[in-house]
């Protein structure tokens, strides 16, 4: 009999157990026109193009030429991996602290993910940590703006230009965040966004690709939404490339459109609240909030994070987080599973077993995965606590209450 595993939960189901004295993500705040747009879909008998309407509206807000809406962020990044035409055995450098959705498309396209380490003391990679990973098989760099903190894209793009590499963004946690006055997702060749229920601009599900590249946009629609099929006279659909049917449904687009109408104000509020909370937390000895670089003008914060100085406390980060939950901070916990080289155990199994594409050829060398591959990232996550319920519902009094709770737990466990 097949072993029955405990399956991961997503969306509202993943947050159903969370209770406390601070606001929680669910129930979500929906734009006032959500019901109106959904009714339009129903009244049209499914003939209205709400998805196209949302794509045009999002492209206008981002200031890009093309938005292609998808059923989620994982499909968006998977379609990009396919549309770039990277060959099996080619390498794509990826942020080490992220979610599996970042790498899923690379794996399915038989690319080899190469995890660059995080910069010391933070969740994101940098040009300095990327450069040692570049080889003659490197084709692209996929950067993740983890928690909504935007990577130093100017330095990364300059490095990529010197080596002739594609750069694209996983902006799933950074919608409408700003770096040097420019929006996340517009800082490279293309980007993937998430509108899943728990994300900053949460719909029921949903995602999108943004780009200014006309040829890439056409390739994305062909590979990602038309299943790689072209119409041939007197025959019909001719499948000339393996493709997907990753199209956003009209009802999802209706909710996304309503959410788009309120998101800029919500992100600006999140930015104000996370800066206030960071300032308050930073005053607690032995506790360091995630740093906000000067070049991040707007921090579209999806989750709040802090690090503990191990020598300052008698307990582990995991026990500290448990006490935060007990004291009323819902969703507090460690995030060791974000370390992708360690979390994706199948990668190391395949690499050690020479499973395609790790066979030689197409691989040009041996690869290994595990926690030790990215020591900075491993060390950072060992003392890092985040809560995934930081949201636009926070007010200054909630930030002050959260800081008091963290201070109380810190004093109770101080070495």
Describe this entry's structure for a reader.
The radius of gyration is 22 Å and the shape is globular. The chain has a domain at 34-256: Aspartate Aminotransferase, domain 2 (3-Layer(aba) Sandwich), CATH 3.40.640. With 415 residues, the chain is of the alpha/beta class. It has helices spanning 12-15, 34-43, 50-62, 73-83, 100-108, 127-130, 153-163, 214-224, 250-281, 317-327, 340-343, 345-353, 375-382, 396-412; strands at 66-70, 91-94, 112-115, 138-144, 166-170, 178-179, 182-183, 190-194, 207-211, 229-232, 236-239, 287-289, 296-298, 304-308, 332-334, 384-387. A seven-stranded mixed sheet has the order 1-9-8-5-4-2-3, with helices on both faces. Helices cover 37% and strands 16% of the residues. Helix 3 (50-62) packs parallel to helix 9 (250-281), helix 4 (73-83) runs parallel beside helix 5 (100-108) and helix 10 (317-327) packs across helix 14 (396-412).
Please give a quick description of this structure.
With 415 residues, this protein is of the alpha/beta class. The protein has helices at 12-15, 34-43, 50-62, 73-83, 100-108, 127-130, 153-163, 214-224, 250-281, 317-327, 340-343, 345-353, 375-382, 396-412, and strands at 66-70, 91-94, 112-115, 138-144, 166-170, 178-179, 182-183, 190-194, 207-211, 229-232, 236-239, 287-289, 296-298, 304-308, 332-334, 384-387.
Assigned CATH class of the domain at 34-256: Alpha Beta
**Total count of helical runs of at least 4 residues:** 14
Largest beta-sheet characterization: 7 strands, mixed
Q: Can you tell me the CATH architecture of the domain at 34-256?
A: 3-Layer(aba) Sandwich
């Amino acid at each position: 009999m097949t072993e029955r595993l405990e399956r991961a939960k997503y969306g509202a189901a993943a947050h159903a157990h969370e209770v406390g004295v601070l606001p929680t993500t669910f129930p979500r705040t929906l734009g006032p026109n959500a019901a109106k747009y959904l009714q339009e879909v129903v009244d049209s008998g499914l003939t209205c193009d709400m998805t196209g309407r949302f794509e045009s509206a999002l492209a206008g807000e981002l200031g890009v030429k093309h938005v292609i809406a998808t059923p989620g962020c994982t499909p968006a990044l998977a379609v990009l991996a396919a549309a770039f035409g990277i060959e099996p055995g080619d390498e794509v450098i990826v942020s080490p602290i992220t979610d599996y959705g970042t790498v899923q498309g690379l794996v399915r396209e038989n690319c080899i993910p190469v995890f660059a380490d995080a910069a010391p003391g933070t969740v994101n990679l940098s040009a300095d940590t990327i450069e040692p990973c570049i080889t003659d098989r490197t084709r692209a760099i996929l950067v993740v703006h983890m928690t909504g903190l935007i990577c130093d894209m100017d330095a990364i793009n300059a490095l990529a230009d010197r080596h002739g590499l594609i750069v694209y963004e996983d902006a799933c946690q950074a919608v409408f965040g700003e770096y040097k006055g420019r929006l996340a997702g517009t800082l490279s060749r293309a980007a993937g966004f998430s509108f899943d229920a728990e994300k900053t601009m949460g719909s029921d599900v949903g995602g999108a690709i943004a780009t200014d590249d006309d040829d890439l946009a056409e390739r994305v629609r062909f590979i990602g939404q038309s299943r790689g099929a072209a119409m041939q006279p007197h025959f019909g659909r001719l499948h000339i490339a393996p493709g997907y049917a990753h199209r956003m449904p009209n009802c999802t687009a209706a909710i996304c459109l309503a959410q788009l109408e309120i998101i800029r104000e919500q992100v600006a509020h999140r930015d104000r609240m996370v800066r206030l909370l960071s300032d308050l937390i930073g005053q607690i000895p032995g506790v360091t909030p995630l740093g906000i670089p000067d070049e991040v003008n707007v921090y579209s914060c999806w989750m709040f994070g802090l690090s503990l100085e191990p020598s300052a406390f008698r307990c582990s980060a995991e026990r500290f987080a448990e006490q935060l939950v007990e004291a009323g901070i819902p969703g507090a916990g460690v995030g060791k599973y974000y370390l992708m080289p360690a979390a994706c155990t199948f990668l190391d199994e395949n690499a050690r077993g020479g499973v395609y594409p790790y066979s030689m050829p197409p691989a040009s060398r041996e690869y290994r995965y595990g926690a030790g591959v990215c020591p900075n990232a491993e060390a950072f996550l060992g003392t890092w606590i985040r809560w995934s319920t930081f949201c636009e519902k926070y007010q200054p009094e909630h930030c002050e209450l959260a800081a008091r709770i963290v201070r109380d737990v810190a004093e109770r466990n101080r070495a």
